[in-house]
Write a structure and sequence with these properties.
The protein is elongated. The chain folds into 3 domains: 5-111, no CATH class; 136-298, Jelly Rolls (Sandwich), CATH 2.60.120; 326-547, Jelly Rolls (Sandwich). A hairpin with a 3-residue loop joins strand 20 (428-433) and strand 21 (437-443). The chain contains 7 helices and 27 strands. It has helices at residues 5-19, 25-37, 39-58, 76-89, 94-108, 296-323, 537-547; strands at residues 136-148, 160-163, 165-178, 183-196, 199-210, 219-222, 225-238, 244-257, 266-270, 274-277, 283-286, 327-331, 342-343, 356-359, 362-365, 372-376, 382-387, 394-402, 409-415, 428-433, 437-443, 448-455, 466-473, 478-483, 486-492, 502-506, 523-531. Helix 3 (39-58) crosses helix 6 (296-323). It is of the alpha+beta class and 561 residues long.
Length: 561
């Protein structure tokens, strides 16, 4: 018999609590009875645990290294997990296995140790884009559904270094990794202050901390005292009146009360213990929470769901763009083999495809896990291509992540010029100059004509996926540059000139002039197209909104009239 919608929701809540080690008492008993009696519930359990296991792999987290002498608390949920593993292999003997194995656990619970995911994040999680400075205390490594309050000292993007200051989050989840290795997940609404590379303060709201041995001594101030880690995983909840709840999942913490007598100032809490600190600073021992504190696995799951949703929306948009009759060239960088040296032109509305030839570039991960991109690192890395038809009007758009800003030119697409004197009229180049300005340059009758924006790439954009677009509108005599979907600069067209690319290079200025070095991009591209018509502002905005890799509010670029 299948489960009703209400039963499915209830079961998933119990399973969520199970994997988070937050299942005890009547709720634990309810799940045990349910799984022993219902085939449908057991099927849901097997699928849920399979998904949970996959998420840990997706998050690329390793099992934590605990000291051999350390006794790790295994809450009832942990024993329940071990008990129900046989269900996945033999659901038909679940009832027999339940009672037999439950008895076994009761006799051997002191010898059981739960292995929990480490809080250490793989190198791929933290982008090398931002340079860590002397005042950096941590890094925002993940975020989901984040809404920063206007009173927050700053509003970081994922993978951005964090300095000392107060973060105020109205909604969503944010994961912070301190430089010494401690990891906290903030659950909005929350107010949290960073003090240093191994200390912070929870002023309001909930967090869950996971502290490896190398960060032992990590501390968090609360209105009623300080929580000092002794090698542990714990949760905190601070209410508006300052009362505090402390929950210890693994290891130990030391609570140093502010409003307590000297003899009572220190209290050590072990795994499985929880206390309530009232307004006077007095402690009351309480049960572990019935509702889970969001941890790294939850955030990884939410991030994956959001990423999948946004990627699916982009796939629909890319199919629409590929079929658009205005499309002259479209590289999605998607669905290529890692050894492929041909960059497929996905534009479907023309007779001949303009596939590119990859030279030197390496395939890498794009805006989403599993999506392709090309990394340009070598001096001669490029994609050779050909656009035979001149463009009276055009839209150029690309998702770019710069590793560093070259001193002269950071080309996205440029005509290959063999001899400057006989270069074709209108030979064009589009990219970013050495000061971080977007540039569209073309050969005019007497001299080079260029349209330059104000500075778009400052240090905070280096290493971040950024959407760039330029529209060349011959009908309205206007050239516009866009950054992350917003108009960044506009200027009148200097001369009515058709742009010509012919033999061109992606990621390189294509110059082969004797005695002169070419200039290449230092970074990655994971989408690029050329349309033979100027997009309206709303169309450019849509490209960004659907294509952006995360759901955070974008940094506001200057909006010029």
């Amino acid at each position: 018999m299948s489960l009703s919608d209400q039963e499915t929701l209830e079961l998933h809540e119990l399973l969520d609590a199970l994997v988070e080690n937050n299942l005890a008492g009547e709720r634990r008993k309810r799940l045990e009875e349910w799984l022993s009696e219902s085939d449908a519930a057991r099927i849901h359990y097997i699928r849920f645990m399979d998904m949970s296991s996959s998420l840990f792999s997706f998050a690329d987290e390793r099992l934590s290294d605990e000291d051999a002498e350390e006794v790790t608390f295994e809450p009832e949920a942990g024993r329940l997990l071990r008990f129900f593993k046989p269900l996945a292999a033999a659901a038909g003997i679940a009832v027999i296995g339940f009672f037999g194995y439950n008895s076994y656990l009761s006799k051997n619970s002191s010898n059981l140790i739960v292995e929990k995911p480490s809080v250490e994040t793989s190198e791929s999680t933290v982008s090398s884009s931002f340079a860590l400075t002397s005042d950096t205390v941590g890094v925002l490594t993940r975020a989901s559904g984040v809404e920063w309050d206007e009173d927050s000292d700053y509003r970081p993007l994922p993978n951005e270094p964090l300095r000392s200051g107060r973060l105020k989050l109205n909604a969503g989840l944010a994961q912070i990794e301190f430089l010494q290795g401690a990891n906290v997940v903030l659950e909005g609404p929350v107010e949290f202050e960073l003090f240093g590379p191994n200390e912070g303060s929870l002023l309001l709201g909930k967090l869950r901390a996971n502290v490896p041995q190398v960060a032992k001594g990590f501390s968090i101030d609360t209105p009623k005292g300080k929580v000092v880690d002794l090698g542990t995983e714990f949760g905190l909840n601070v209410e508006e009146d300052g009362v505090t709840e402390i929950y210890v999942y693994v290891g130990k913490v030391l609570f140093e009360g502010k409003d307590r007598d000297a003899e009572l100032a220190f209290e050590e809490l072990e795994a499985g213990e929880a206390v309530f600190v009232d307004q006077k600073g007095d402690l009351t021992w309480i049960d572990m929470p019935s509702e889970p504190f969001f941890g790294t696995a939850d955030l990884a799951y939410r991030s994956m769901e959001e990423s999948q949703r946004r990627h699916s929306a982009w796939v629909e948009l890319s199919e629409e763009l590929a079929a658009d009759p205005r499309n002259s060239l479209y590289f999605t960088f998607d669905d290529h083999r890692s050894w492929s040296r041909i960059l497929r032109d996905d534009a479907q509305s023309k007779k001949d495809r303009h596939d590119g030839a990859i030279v030197g570039c390496k395939w890498s991960e794009g805006r989403w896990p599993g999506k392709g991109a090309l990394s340009f690192a070598g001096e001669n890395d490029r994609v050779n291509l050909k656009l035979s038809k001149p463009l009276r009007s055009a839209t150029f758009a690309s998702w770019v992540r710069l590793k560093e800003l070259g001193s002269v030119m950071n080309p996205i697409i440029c005509s290959t010029i063999l001899d400057q004197k006989v270069a074709t009229l209108g030979s064009a180049c589009w990219g970013i100059d050495g000061t971080g300005r977007i540039v569209l340059r073309a050969k005019g009758t007497d001299s080079s004509i260029q349209y330059v924006s104000s500075v778009a790439f400052r240090k905070e954009r280096i290493g971040q996926w950024t959407h760039l677009a330029t529209t060349y509108d011959a009908d309205n005599k206007m050239v516009s540059h866009y950054v992350d979907g917003r108009p960044f600069s506009r200027e009148k067209m200097q001369v009515d000139l058709k742009l010509f690319f012919g033999k061109s290079a992606l990621g390189h200025n294509g110059r082969q002039l004797k005695g002169k070095r070419g200039h290449g991009l230092r970074g990655s591209i994971d989408e690029f197209f050329v349309f033979n018509e100027a997009f309206a502002e709303e169309e450019v905005r849509r490209l960004y909104e659907i294509g952006r890799p995360y759901a955070l509010p974008p940094r506001l670029a200057p909006v010029l009239p």
